């Protein structure tokens, strides 16, 4: 179901009209722009397309003379054992370098841990977060929190959340906690390799992330 139009009253949003004519009351709209990959160059011209231009682990498409990277590429990530399209500028930056090397016949395996960051509500007080790893809805059995995730009016929360399956860390997001990405990504790599961790140590801020696996 699509959106046909937004309607307003006295300069404010009041209703959303769906494509079938249904009118819904609304006072806030969140619009996601650019959610579909721009695959027009590949559509019908050779390279396979499936939620992006499909590539192997070296960023080579089904046409051996064509490479793809960045938001538009659905690349096979051997760490995850699946194709994934990562919609963040860091993927375009890192993928571009890797694709360039692959074009020069260098042996490249693009297996970076999926990553994105976001800053919310401005810089002060604001909330910043980074997320590494990948986990689909229902593919984890618990979320482990390290730190205080309580929302308060007088202070921003500071915590790390880990999505875990059978004791293995599949993804981690740090919120207002910095310089921990190396540790989180190491845990994710270990988790996808089937290495479980002690969840008590994982949740304990007193245990450095780089020794949780030891």
Which descriptors would you attach to this protein?
214 residues; alpha+beta; FAD/NAD(P)-binding domain; Enolase-like, domain 1; 3 domains; 5-stranded antiparallel sheet; 3-stranded antiparallel sheet; 3 helices; 11 strands; flat
Description:
The structure is a single chain. 15% of the residues lie in helices and 30% in strands. The chain is an alpha+beta fold and 214 residues long. The chain has three domains: 1-31, no CATH class; 34-112, FAD/NAD(P)-binding domain, CATH 3.50.50; 115-211, Enolase-like, domain 1 (2-Layer Sandwich), CATH 3.30.390. A hairpin with a 4-residue loop joins strand 5 and strand 6 (82-84).
In the predicted model, the low-confidence regions spanning at least 5 consecutive residues are none
Could you give the order of strands across the largest sheet? 7-8-11-10-9
Structural class comes to: alpha+beta
Tally of individual domains = 3
User: What proportion of the residues form beta strands (DSSP E)?
Assistant: 25-35%
- Compressed to H and E, one letter per element, the order equals EEEEEEHEEEEEHH
Query: Major sheet, described briefly?
Result: 5 strands, antiparallel
- Relative helix content: 10-25%
Q: What is the CATH homology-level superfamily of the largest domain?
A: FAD/NAD-linked reductase, C-terminal dimerisation domain
What is the name of the CATH topology of the largest domain?
Enolase-like, domain 1
- Count the beta strands: 11
State the shape. flat
